[in-house]
Amino acid sequence: MTVYRSTPKEDSMIHRKKLKRVLQADLLKAFRENKVPEEMIKNLEEKIAELGEFIPTVGIFGKTGVGKSSLCNALFGKDTARVADIDACTRHPQEVFIQMSQDGSGITVIDLPGVGENKLRDAEYKALYQQVIPKLDLIIWVIKADDRTFTVDESFYDEVIKPQLELAKTPFLVVVNQVDRLNPIRDWNTEANQPGLAQMKTIGERTHWASDKFRVPTHQVIAISAVEKYNLGALVEAIIDIVPNDKKLGFLNQMEEDVTTEKSEQSAFAGIVEYLKDAYKEIKPYIPEIIAALKWLFKVAKTIVI
């Protein structure tokens, strides 16, 4: 496995320290103030640290040229560009560990070979994907916004990917990339860095089209421009929402600061509280008071089922 190191930005480090403080200081302080036994608090502290150190493994599916490399760059940092510097006809998954900080935290990205080259290779990929999918924490299938030649992808998805997803229960998202290239290209608002009205209409149509082809809800289809960094915040929010509670913090910790949003932070925090509540039944009675004590949790309190 190749290791590429990226230097975290100063603001990103501040952001992660803030989140770490809220989880490992403010939350634990609220537990103490509500008379949670000290031994239990120690266990909670160790568990929160463990959840934050989780290293996600993400499988990136899609044809060559759909922008898988630029997507990884935008989400995880500019030094991940070499993740796609491989033979387009490779028959093997390319696994890259992206180290995000000095403490060794990071994310593993697996770029899987495309489909539709020929029937022999598709048969090989079927066996390959059956082995790889159960090991993934998330699958992102990337398609080009202006690509309507989905027949091969659809067939392979139905016959190979979808059954494995259902068996392994792997979280799955579809990313419609390169929306800035949709016609009319001149409609793109460069000042606001967003699509114009005509493009927005097409984006809506493409989102519903992809939802229909993959047979997933529209909230699992995110239209973005990785190069223009358009709508990446919505993608991160979708990722944090769809992964299990015990993996939300690990995923959030690996995202670039400029693509995380208040909603994704709150979703990760709420997920941690939900996970702790389910894992440690003894703390359930303390949850309402603890939520009330943490102003930071004000907006997400209603998402936590007491």
3D architecture notes:
- It holds the Pfam family MMR_HSR1.
- One of its GO terms (cellular component) is cytosol.
- This is GTP-binding protein.
- GO terms for molecular function: GTP binding.
- With 306 residues, the protein is α/β, with parallel strands linked by helices.
- It has two domains: 91 residues; 185 residues, 3-Layer(aba) Sandwich (Rossmann fold), CATH 3.40.50.
- 47% of the residues lie in helices and 12% in strands.
- The chain has a seven-stranded mixed β-sheet with strand order 1-3-4-2-5-6-7, with helices on both faces.
- Strand 5, helix 5 and strand 6 form a beta-alpha-beta unit.
- Helix 4 runs parallel beside helix 5, helix 7 runs antiparallel to helix 8 and helix 8 runs antiparallel to helix 9.
- The longest helix has 24 residues.
- The N terminus is likely disordered.
User: Which fold does the CATH topology of the largest domain refer to?
Assistant: Rossmann fold
Mean pLDDT across all amino acids: 78
- Helix-strand string: EHHEHEEHEHEHEHHHH
- Structural class assignment: alpha/beta
- CATH architecture annotation of the largest domain: 3-Layer(aba) Sandwich
Shape: globular
Unreliable runs, pLDDT <50, ≥5 residues? 1-14, 81-90, 296-302
Largest sheet: 7 strands, mixed
- Domain count, please report it: 2
